[in-house]
Amino acid sequence: MVETSRAPRRDSYTVDTLLAVTVRVFNERGYDGTSMEDLSRAAGISKSSIYHHVKGKEELLRLAVGRALDGLFGTLEEPAATTGTALARLQHVVHRTTEVLLAELPYVTLLLRVRGNTATEQWALQRRREFDHRVAELLAEAVAEGSLRADVEPRLATRLLFGMINSLVEWYRPDGPDGARTAARVADAVSELAFHGLRASD
Amino acid sequence: MVETSRAPRRDSYTVDTLLAVTVRVFNERGYDGTSMEDLSRAAGISKSSIYHHVKGKEELLRLAVGRALDGLFGTLEEPAATTGTALARLQHVVHRTTEVLLAELPYVTLLLRVRGNTATEQWALQRRREFDHRVAELLAEAVAEGSLRADVEPRLATRLLFGMINSLVEWYRPDGPDGARTAARVADAVSELAFHGLRASD
């Protein structure tokens, strides 16, 4: 009798690699539609091995959306987001937000799909609103300094701006042969269209 | 015995009013997650009464997304979309597309959420791609005439443009005391931001 053949498959996961599997399953099946059984099957390890890393499904959600939120809020603390004109700070935040979204695509996708009623989902929605609010304030500041048009109210402008940026999760796929350059090109395009629009400059 | 007390509840629906109930349920529960039983309960009429109007769930979907598609494609046939510079035609289509989205909000919401594998869903996805393609062509024409910037490729610009417009289904609610004026203000804001961006003109 070969004892090792009965041993459970070795759990070589870290929280980070387990999270990568989890976020893929959450995005495919929805958070509500995903059971610990589904996660166990997708990861190829037992449920008890998953419980060795985290308390359960809700902690995995918190870690996954936390990663997206840390990336987004991090952009607000970067030097270029904290010094200079409001316009320059906003331009930096818009460009970096797009870069974070593309770099952390599955995590931001999950964040943007959060809808539910658990404490973690409510927390994620609240943090997302806080981020939008911080950007809306920056936008209002840039209007006040005269750099941005005053005829579109900042809250509406912020919503349309994030509408454009967040729509990337619907179609952008980083798999191409030239992912990093494509991401840079997309982030540049978002910045250009956001601040200058489609019209050719005269 | 009062015979009328046993009569089925009178079906005062037309296809249009039945569709209004249906599209609300589809948007709440998802097309796949909606049964004829759910529709019967929401409409307060029997399933056989619904079958009196339509063949079934898939026909209701076809009629609902058809209404959204008719509205969107209709904008391409309007005089201002067929004569004049490519820029003027594109500006008209962007403004009218936004107006149609806001006026037919539940129907366009349903169209934008179509994902599945039934023939009707495939047809809806195909028609939606056709519409995007028509707008992308118009945008390319406006680039070629020198009215629009050439440094963002038309396909990417179209995606970001529709990202901004389509995001309205996520938050716009027409219930306010001043719905029509709000819709006009939003459509103007979309046009301004799309063509001129956030920057104040010098």
From TrEMBL, chains A, B:
Transmembrane feature ranges: none
PROSITE patterns linked to this entry = HTH_TETR_2
Domain HTH tetR-type, by residue range, is 12-72
* InterPro entries assigned: Homeodomain-like_sf (IPR009057), HTH-type_TetR-like_transc_reg (IPR050109), HTH_TetR (IPR001647), KstR2_TetR_C (IPR041490), Tet_transcr_reg_TetR-rel_C_sf (IPR036271)
Q: Annotated Gene Ontology MF terms?
A: DNA-binding transcription factor activity; transcription cis-regulatory region binding
The record, for Pfam families, names:
TetR_C_24 (PF17932), TetR_N (PF00440)
Listed Gene3D superfamilies: Homeodomain-like (1.10.10.60), Tetracycline Repressor, domain 2 (1.10.357.10)
Q: Which residue intervals are the DNA-binding region? A: 35-54
What keywords are annotated for this sequence in UniProt? DNA-binding, Transcription, Transcription regulation
Domain of life of the organism encoding this protein: Bacteria
SUPFAM superfamilies attached to this UniProt entry: Homeodomain-like, Tetracyclin repressor-like, C-terminal domain
User: Could you tell me what this protein is called?
Assistant: TetR family transcriptional regulator
Q: What is the lineage of its organism?
A: Bacteria, Bacillati, Actinomycetota, Actinomycetes, Kitasatosporales
